[in-house]
Amino acid sequence: MGNLLLQMLAGTVTSLKIFALTLLFSLPLGLLVAKGRMSKNPIISNMVNIYIMIMRGTPLILQLLFVYFAPYYIFGASYDRFTAVIVGFVINYAAYFAEIYRGGIQSIPIGQYEASLVLGFSKTHTFTHVVAPQVVKRIIPAMGNEVITLVKDTALAQTIGVAELFRVAQNASARQFSTMPIFIAGVFYFLMNALVSRSFDLLEKKLNYYH
Amino acid sequence: MEIISVANLKKEFDGLGVLKGISFTLNKGEVLSIIGPSGSGKSTLLRCLTQLEPIDGGTIEVCSKTMVRTTEAGKVSYANKETLKEVRLNLGLVFQSFNLFPHMSVLRNITEAQMHVLGRSKEEANQVGRSLLAKMGLEEKEKAYPCQLSGGQQQRVSIARALALNPDVLCFDEPTSALDPELTGEILKVIKDLAKEKMTMIVVTHEMSFARDISDRVIFMDDGLIVEEGTPQQLFNDPTNPRTKRFLNRYEQN
User: B25 by DSSP, 3-state: which?
Assistant: First the structure.
């Protein structure tokens, strides 16, 4: 039993790594994608829109397979499975985050931009000091949803052979002819998401000083 | 001394003329009110002056700088970036809907541009901010957030925010239209006090008696044109244009 828990903890560490690295790269990349989607240049905005449609319109599991196997079939090049998982997750989640950012940015009243312009703020200052702080407050509930989904989605990494928490639990179940490990994994996911939920609640409270 | 000089200003929205050739000048220390029915182009005129709307023809000069002019071939040509930025700081604008920054404290609303745009130190900006808040009767509210203030208080903060940059001209775009009548008075009093201090102002307003009280000159606009212009006495007591008469009569009836 102690051995099983150790294995599952190792799997959890892998899941957490996927989770953290995905957020680290997809949060800023999403902003870039959102900017592209809102670009006045129709070529850029259409290309970005197609990218978002593909990412949201096809299963993540298929995207992971594609990211890992396509370079092999096309160039004969293979690479690290874990890297492929991160690439797959990042490009998928950046698309979702981009749409959340876009919704937030477009919900900021035009008067905020006009006041900034009349006061002489630069475009960058307007974005970083006027728009972005208000966007963060508005998108917290939607981001909370997405980040919770990400915790559970890490289970898909096993499709290309990365032994994360759920894979470890399944293997243990098969060995022991018991569903207990899978049930324990469920508890692990639940606890991780309880933490995520709580963090988002706290953040929401912290930004409650204005509306 | 002329601070603003506008000649033959034209603005269209989707081919529809909103300003059809506006010309006027504003002297230092003068208070100019612009009245007229909704849709006559009053607000658009202010938005063109403050660079919120690009113009489609004419010339605007502010503090002896040409902000925008139109060539003989009819091409509109704006000044370079630096000049436009200078002109932007020559003019302050108070919005109908305040447009305060909701996530910043009252004091921060007033200091942000001082620090970022004028490069004032935090201490200096705070000092200027506090003295303006005191002038607006809001010294207790510096730590409050806009959502905790009444509409009248928010509008006073936004006036302080504009004044903090020491504009040469302060423009008001229907500053009391979003307020209920009880709160209108406190804003009008602030503007009156500024007029006493010889602040140069352009006030777009629907408050006729107020325009009569504080203005040195009144412009009546209708359908994108200046119909009549004169001192408050001339315009309100003895309007010459039938359109002005009809407009003012309707106000007196109400």
Answer: strand
Using beta carbons and an 8 Å cutoff, which residues of B are at the interface with A? 50-52, 85, 88-89, 91-93, 95, 97, 99-103, 112-113, 116-117, 145-147, 161-162, 165
Q: Is residue A102 part of a domain?
A: yes
Q: What is the ipTM of this complex?
A: 0.93
Domain of residue A200, residue span: 2-206
Helix (H) or strand (E) holding B200: strand B200-204
A157-205 confidence digits (pLDDT tens): 999 999 999 999 999 999 999 999 999 999 999 999 999 999 999 999 9
pTM of the entire predicted model: 0.91
A211: in domain: no
Contacts of residue B97, Cβ cutoff 8 Å, sequence gap at least 6: A111, B178
**Percentage of chain B with pLDDT > 90?**
89
The upper half-sphere exposure of residue B94, i.e. CA atoms within 13 Å in the direction of its Cβ, equals 32
The pLDDT value given to residue B203: 96
Task: Give the CA distances from residue A29 to residues A24, A26, A33, B10, in Å, rounded to whole numbers and listed in that order.
Answer: 9, 5, 6, 43
A114 touches B: beta carbon within 8 Å: yes
Distance, CA of A186 to CA of A166 (rounded, Å):
8
Inter-chain CB proximity A115 and B51 less than 8 Å: no
User: Using CA atoms, how far apart are residues B212 and B223, in angstroms rounded to an integer?
Assistant: 22
Q: Residue A160 has which token pair?
A: 């290309």
**Is-contact B205 B40, C-beta < 8 A?**
no
- Nearest-CA distance B94 → chain A (Å): 9
Question: Domains in chain A: how many in total?
Answer: 1
Q: What is the three-class DSSP state of B247?
A: helix
CATH label of the domain that carries residue A24: 1.10.3720.10
For residue B33, what are the β-bridge partners?
B203, B218
Query: What does the DSSP 8-state code read for residue B138?
Result: -
Structure tokens belonging to residue A139: 């998108």
pLDDT band at B78 (very low <50, low <70, confident <90, very high): very high
